[in-house]
Amino acid sequence: MAFLTFIIQITAATTLLLYSIRMIQGGVKRASGDNYKERMANVTSLPRSILTGMTMAIITQSSIAVTMLATAFSKNKELSFGVGLAMVIGADIGSSLLIQVLSFNLDWLMPLLMLSGGALFLKGKKSKIKQIGRILLGASLVLISLKFLREAVSPLASSDMLPFFSMILEQDHITAFIIGAGLAFVMHSSLAAILVILTLVSTNSVSFESGFSLVMGANFGSALVPLWLSRKMNGFERRIPWGNFIFRGLGASAFMISIHNHPQSLYFLQNSEEQVLVFLHIAFNLSLLLLLPLRSYLEILLEKFLGPNEQSKDVENFAQRSVFEYKMIDNPEIAYARLKREVLRMSELVKSIFEPLMIISKAPNKQQINLLVKNSSHLSDAFDMIRKFVSEISKTDLKKGDRRRLRSLIAYSTQLQRTGQIVTTNLLPRFKEIPKSGLQLSQEGENELIEIHTKLNQNLSLATNFLLDNKLNTAKLIIENKNAISKLLRTSQKKHFERVSKGVLKSIASSNLHLELLHSFRDMNGRFASNAYPSLSKADLLNDSLLID
Questions:
Q1: In terms of residue numbers, what domain contains 417?
Q2: What is the pLDDT of residue 315?
Q3: How far is CA 215 from CA 91, 98, 194, 328, 421, in A?
Q4: Final residue before a domain boundary, out of 280, 306, 332
């Protein structure tokens, strides 16, 4: 019965720890939207990528999440392999530093975090304030879960079975390593796994030597998780998870063997065993920076091992595939459903054109520009097919309501097609001038445009969802976001002119590019939100084009 109680207590404490970490991650994502993703995708230098990875791991409480984001950006060619790998190593360092903070006795901080987080979450008027409250509540729950964990494992110190179990782990470092790897893999979090291991060591439930093997195993297991999560990607797309596994996973094995074979190297450390383990964990992740000069050789090796960049035919041909069939054109419902699917395809094409704009504005290359032109051409072809399809449907006997729905879809598809024209006509000529002129946006201007671009991208996703659910709440949110973006556009323009008047050289040199991006974003802002107006107008929720509260 005592053993069952112990299992329930330690499982409950670990579950609370995992939930707390997810709670913080959810709060960060809701508070920042896709801003952090944009900032990750805009990183090009090695030092900045390491710092970005560290920051993102501390904010999201997960180096694995950063690894998967870097993999996604690398897959879309928004991050180079070297920069992506450096970002992942930075994330591992950030996660290890976070463990150092959480290993301290922070019981005094629990009630403060709980009180302030609860007040912000329950009383906050704005969504961002509520999410900050959620993050603080999550942090307090992390501390509470660690306290529960310590209380749950403390009886182990006096257990009759403990000396036998600890002796096995102490004598068999490989078994301890495998257990640590399994713990991190099952939890999908090296942070949570290592905190559990540190708790076992601090309560004398496990010896220092066993704890060290368990921690190195957790590093190995953490490198396995991204490989598992990316298992459905093709070989080329998994370069960063494989690179991380080779550097961190195999590096953990080598580091463990090295320390166990030279224990005298630790004699100068006079801290508690728990703190020495944390120090070794940080030292190991910092040592991975020494391997970064080998990244280009590793990339060549992985390309030979994993194969070239070959997208599946389904992915390659998606943009060129139409969903139209003319067999059931006499059935208005089926015809309308197929037309809606084609407009959704146009929306996805617009997203593929719009998403990389800020990355291209910073460091354009011929391949990226050619891809934009290609997708814009697919967008125009899709629009031509929609017009032809609607022309054929219009010849059939349609009810008044069906004709109104068709007009709404053709109107929105026109707005989407115009977005592609804005990019190719207005923005691409500016982008092509950047490599020759070496033009760069000012840091302030770039941050303003990234924020606007991120919110526009979110509103485009909402507009796409509205095509599917047609809910009034979604339509209202689209217009609210549009109005907020309009305000950001005006503010950015005002700040830009202020910087120019003060003689900021980068702002003066990049003025045409900055204003062209603002003008294009302003145009797209109205077009992305255009499909929400008919439904709101029909529900009498608009007054002279303004949303009624």
A1: 321-547
A2: 39
A3: 17, 15, 6, 62, 54
A4: 306
Nearest-CA neighbor of 66 among 58, 74, 75, 57?
A: 57
Q: How many C-beta atoms lie closer than 10 Å to residue 132's C-beta?
A: 20
Residues sharing a CB contact under 8 Å with residue 400, sequence separation 6 or more, in sequence order: none
> Does residue 356 share a domain with residue 233?
no
Residues 6+ apart with CB under 8 A from 475: 466, 532, 533, 535, 536
Residue 493, domain CATH: 1.20.58.220
Q: Write down the pLDDT at residue 316.
A: 44
Return d(Cα 119, Cα 132) in angstroms, integer.
Answer: 10
Shared domain for 83 and 106, answered yes or no, is yes
Whether residue 289 sits in one domain with residue 370: no
- Burial class from Cβ neighbours inside 10 Å (0-12, 13-18, 19+) for residue 417 reads buried
**What type of residue sits at position 401?**
G
Nearest partner of 378 among 420, 335, 413, judged by Cα? 420
Whether residue 27 lies inside any domain: the answer is yes
What residue ranges of the chain have pLDDT lower than 50?
310-318, 549
Question: Which residue has tokens 């990339």?
Answer: 299
Q: Which 8-state DSSP code applies to residue 104?
A: S
Question: Are 278 and 334 members of one domain?
Answer: no
Residues in contact with 302: Cβ distance below 8 Å, sequence separation at least 6, in sequence order: 81, 239, 242, 243
Which pLDDT does position 332 carry in this prediction? 65
Phi, psi angles (nearest 5°) of residue 544: 55, 50
220 and 357 both lie in a single domain: no
| pLDDT computed for residue 313 by the predictor | 41
Whether residue 533 is found in the same domain as residue 386: yes
Confidence (pTM): 0.63
pLDDT for position 497: 92
SS3 letters for 510-541? CHHHHHHHHHHHHHHHHHHCHHHHHHHHHCCC
Number of folded domains in the chain? Answer: 2
Q: How far is it, in rounded angstroms, from Cα 169 to Cα 175? A: 7
